[in-house]
Amino acid sequence: MTLHLVRHGRPLVRRGVPAAQWDLDPESYDDVWALRASGRLPTAAAWFTSPEPKAVQTAQLLTDGEVGVLDEVREHERSGEWLDDFTGVVRRAFEHPEEPAAPGWEPLAVCRDRVVPAVRRVLDVHGDDDVVLVGHGTAWTVLVADLTGRPPDLQRWESLAMPDVLTVEP
């Protein structure tokens, strides 16, 4: 079994609106279709997505099959306030996961404690099947760290494209 963790396509950023409500940018559809055509994702797999619009829309472009929605794999919850140093604040979240990295942000440990058990349940149910999860870079970074027993790879997080795919053999 291989776990394929897809980071959503580029969102249509709307300042003042929480990122959890952003749609997929229609100009990024070609990037999502290119990922679909790349052969990096299995043709037969169990598919699930975060409930966030940009993730659901990415999943819909990546497969013609059914896609389940898992509320627990939504992104690390953040306020809608725009941050000029987003990367620095996310790094701070990883350095101090038990604390909010910025006002209105959930501690990263809360995200981890929500995402990891949900994904482990999916893996338990799907046993030997490949699984594709469409979601978010920060959530996938904490998940990969937990599944591999390694520290979070922040360089990999920073280099993730929109869309992109990480594969893990749990």
How would you characterize the overall build of this protein?
- This protein has 170 residues and is an alpha/beta fold.
- It has a single domain (3-168), classed as 3-Layer(aba) Sandwich (Rossmann fold), CATH 3.40.50.1240.
- The protein is 39% helix and 12% strand.
- It is built from six helices and five strands.
- The chain has helices at 29-37, 53-62, 86-95, 108-126, 137-148, 154-159; strands at residues 3-7, 46-49, 68-69, 131-135, 164-168.
- Strands 3-2-4-1-5 form a five-stranded mixed beta sheet.
- Helix 2 (53-62) links the parallel strand 2 (46-49) and strand 3.
- Helix 4 (108-126) crosses helix 5 (137-148).
- The longest helix is centred in the C-terminal third of the chain and has 19 residues, at 108-126.
- The protein is globular and about 40 Å long.
- 34% of the residues are buried.
